[in-house]
Amino acid sequence: SQTIHQWPATLVQPVGSPLSLECTVEGTSNPNLYWYRQAAGRGLQLLFYSVGIGQISSEVPQNLSASRPQDRQFILSSKKLLLSDSGFYLCAWSRPPAHEQFFGPGTRLTVL
Amino acid sequence: TQLLEQSPQFLSIQEGENLTVYCNSSSVFSSLQWYRQEPGEGPVLLVTVVTGGEVKKLKRLTFQFGDARKDSSLHITAAQPGDTGLYLCAGAGGGGADGLTFGKGTHLIIQP
Q: Could you tell me which of A94, A96, A76, A108 has the C-alpha nearest to residue B45?
């Protein structure tokens, strides 16, 4: 069976500090991978998606970036965090051509 | 930009009552997913509907996809406290690797 992991589960960072969130998927190969941010009252916002190693598409221009160094690893990064980066970050995977996405447990990021 | 409007935003009812929540759009989707999310966790996929007019049942939950594939509804019969959560609908576009378009969700509370 497939599982998806995210860490850390919670993170408190000062403004201007760097960020690295990691997501790994087990039990499948060549998945599509996604990063979402969920802010209160705003639903899920797609940040990045990837169809393969080194292939990243950005949906929203911002100070975040994503990388996929391995087939089942997806990393979300920032060089300098902003207050507005606070939120609940979710990683998800899907197996094309199906559209169903399966989510990780999420990372709660608070920027102070 | 495809938008999904969910209604109501908040719903609090007594255990044993029936309820329906709605997901509407002016756009056509190739498929539509329903997810349930509990606080501090990632969304969990409940069902995918693909064909216009399709009805799917999952125990006490009944999902319907509109004939024109622009809207969907979720009906819960004899609601239980365990049904409490955030219900999200998400629409998929025409077969791309891009992420789903999510509604903002319906916050459902079932009071014992």
A: A94
Q: Which two tokens stand for residue B104?
A: 């903002």
pLDDT, position A54: 92
Contact A45, A60 (CB under 8 A): yes
Query: How does pLDDT run across A81-105, given as a tens digit for each residue?
Result: 999 999 999 999 999 877 899 999 9
Asked if A53 and A70 touch (Cβ cutoff 8 Å), the reply is yes
Contacts of B45 in chain A (CB under 8 A): 100-102
Cβ–Cβ below 8 Å for B99 and A90: no
Contact B88, B72 (CB under 8 A): no
Yes or no, beta carbons of A90 and B43 under 8 Å apart: yes
Percent of chain A with pLDDT strictly greater than 90:
79
**Interatomic CA distance for residues B46 and B13, integer angstroms:** 21
Report the alpha-carbon distance of residue A31 to residue B22 in Å, rounded. Answer: 30
Residue A15: other Cβ atoms inside 10 A: 12
**Is pLDDT above 80 for B70?**
yes
Partner-chain residue, chosen from A36, A41, A46, that has the shortest CB–CB distance to B104:
A41
Determine whether the interchain pair B98/A46 forms a contact, defined as Cβ–Cβ distance below 8 Å: yes
Give the tens place of pLDDT for each residue, B1-24. 568 999 999 999 999 999 999 999
Q: Which two tokens stand for residue A60?
A: 């929203």
- Please enumerate in sequence order all residues whose Cβ is within 8 A of that of A61, keeping only pairs 6 or more positions apart, or say none: none
